[in-house]
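I am still getting used to backbone structure tokens and would like to learn alongside you. To get us started, please write out a protein record for me. Once you have written the record down, we can walk along the chain together.
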Amino acid sequence: MVLALVSGLALTACGPAEDDASGGVEGPTASTPESVTPSKPSKPSKPTTPSASADEGSPSGGDGSSPDPEYALFPCSTYDVKFTATLAESTTGSYLLKITNKGTKACKVLGHPVVTFGDLDGQATERGEAPGIEDALRLEAGESAYAGLMGGVDDGTGKTVDSIAMTMNTESDLEQTPLKASTPGLYVSPDKNSVTAWVDNAEDALGS
């Protein structure tokens, strides 16, 4: 009797474990939370670029940009350049005039050089046409420009000088210190000594 009771208790004690193993008894189960991928933040939209035509035709640059840099250049004066004169043709007494920008900024070379002859009154006449200020030669730092001073054969009507002086055309009343150059035996006669406009090469200066 006692043995039968003990056996029954043993079976009763094993029952729930067997049911759990076979899945017969359902208990609360901890469900694994689903992984959630965080959504990427949306990219901010690019600002709309204003139409280029909005400021077209505005002389001051409606978008805040600076005006054409060519208009910001000052005319070259004798304070900006160094000057030399070299005999180019001995039979006619023609000289090659050369200026070099000795500064650190560009300037514009306007028109013809203004050439005078030592103690003589008057100046060389302008030979040929020069470009307007809008198309004038831009002279960067260290660059050179050239002009031709055309002489003449001694016809007994003029005088000989050993030096010339040159100032630049600035289209203003700016006072300049004349730059001098040696021109031994240069014959100066009325209306026969002329000077060409500034150009960017020696060949064109003397061929004008």
About this structure: The helical segments are 2-22, 202-207. Confidence is low (pLDDT under 50) at residues 1-38, 43-67. The first strand starts at residue 81 and ends at 89.
